[in-house]
Amino acid sequence: MSQRPQHNANNVTDTHLVIVGTGFAGLGMAIRLKEMGIDDFIIIERASDVGGTWRDNRYPGAACDVPSHLYSFSFEPNTEWSRVYPTQPELEAYLQNVTDKWNLRPHIRFSHTLTAAHYQQDSGHWLVKTSGGDFRARFVVCGNGGLAEPKLPDIPGVENFGGHHFHSATWDHNYSLDGKRVAVIGTGASAIQFVPQIADKPAKLSVFQRTPNWILPRHDRAYRRFEKWLFKRLPITRKLLRAKIYCQNEMRVLGMVLHPALMKLFRITATWNIRRQVADPSLRKSLTPTFPIGCKRILISNDWYPALQKPNVEVETSGIQEITSTSIISKDGSEREVDCIIFGTGFYATENPIATMIHGRDGRVLADVWADGEEAYLGSSVHGFPNFFFIVGPNVTLGHSSMVYMIETQIAAISRVLEAANEVSSTTVEVREEVQDTYNRELQTRLGGSVWANGCDSWYKHRSGKITQLWPGFTFSFRRRNRDFKQSDYIFATPSTEATQ
Ligand code: NAP
Q1: Predicted model pTM
Q2: Taking residues 53-60, what's their average pLDDT?
Q3: 489 lines ligand 1 (CB under 6 A)
Q4: Which of 343, 371, 403 is the last residue of a domain?
Q5: What is the dihedral of CA 418, 422, 424, 427, to 10 degrees?
Q6: Domain boundary residue among 343, 374, 405?
Q7: Cβ of 345 less than 6 Å from ligand 1
Q8: pLDDT tens, residue by residue, 391-433
Q9: How would you class 261 by CB atoms within 10 Å of its CB: exposed for 0-12, middle for 13-18, buried for 19 or more?
């Protein structure tokens, strides 16, 4: 397994394993393979450099709202984080450094966009088609990210707008907002970060809010030189800080899943946060959510409310009726001529377009299998799709802590399945249907009593209403569940032979 990928007669590159994406998930998986002594793998990446979310989302003010010392690989600590919350450039640089340190670039095929993946039943391989060439692999690990495909709103006329426009995830840094009439559609995690950064530039900035969010203060600050020195010289101090952040975040699960009444404490803080920052009662009312706190992602910011009260900024809350070639018409009949629209309208989270490209056993298309809402076993394996694994697949996202922890958990779990397949000399491994079903029934029962279930719409939910994104519990219980690996949960086989387990 340590040999290098080979071209065969059909100009298809043979390799043991293909990884999709070079974010935390893809890079972490590649590092684990190297640790396992597997060198025969390819990483396909549609962009020209690594970084995933943290390469794409370069809008002004982009930062993570999980503290840096937790939002990083446990095995690659960084004592030099400049702030409590890492900024996009820092995270991108961190991932580039990790890539170079582990010498992953020779494995990466940049500008290779996945176009299709077909399971070949006769041989148990996957044919992975990309814009840059095709690969034949025994295994595929998809680390393409749950929030990778920017979504434009389904507002009538949106396609007719003739002015400048871009999405927060594809920010146009060459376009000057100075003196322009700018509209921002959306008031989610991305918009509350970029609006304060750009608010002073346009002559007029109209923020179109469909649903206000609950916002808590952001306790951010730069780390002092002395602290960084301490993290470096006394690693226990960094480890203790990481453990403290981890435990504080896990406490939120008590309110989000186990006792939603506890969320009142957050509601009191968020309500105080609006009161102290927004003086005008009518604006305050329109910025105060009516849904239970935590139902949608809780946001953190100190500069969102002040930005909305600048003299050149207005908040429009009546809803958008239509977009014309030059303007936005609101449901109250008012019309605003604008030069530029910035869409802070989120991503295809629940219906990830990549599922339309994945063809499993008997030609079944993953998007069809997931028509009523995505599901998998432990967020990784889907019955009918042997040798195919997701990182950050269904029901792995968190409303309370670091996705890097979940990613590391899944990488370890996938490695265990790969090792088990190797040990029993099987060429295919597939989760049993009844195991996947039982797991998902249990998840949905637990999610039914959570704060996310009732009172709001969110990207955590499929259009059927099923919560397909979130893990309903502590992150350590997800890890424990993954560690309790049972070989009997999977069917190990070699094509044209009986299953071995
Ligand atoms: P988002 O949270 O999904 O927010 C999208 C916004 O667009 C919402 O305000 C939504 O309103 C609005 N919208 C969507 N369709 C609309 C329509 N047709 N008409 C009017 N408004 C519409 O997207 P995001 O802000 O890009 O964030 C996505 C996720 O990325 C976050 O939840 C978070 O997990 C992650 N993220 C994290 C960070 C961070 O760590 N700080 C930063 C950015 C993003 P409704 O609420 O009414 O649907």
Answers
A1: 0.95
A2: 97
A3: no
A4: 343
A5: 80
A6: 343
A7: yes
A8: 999 999 998 999 999 999 999 999 999 999 999 888 999 999 9
A9: exposed
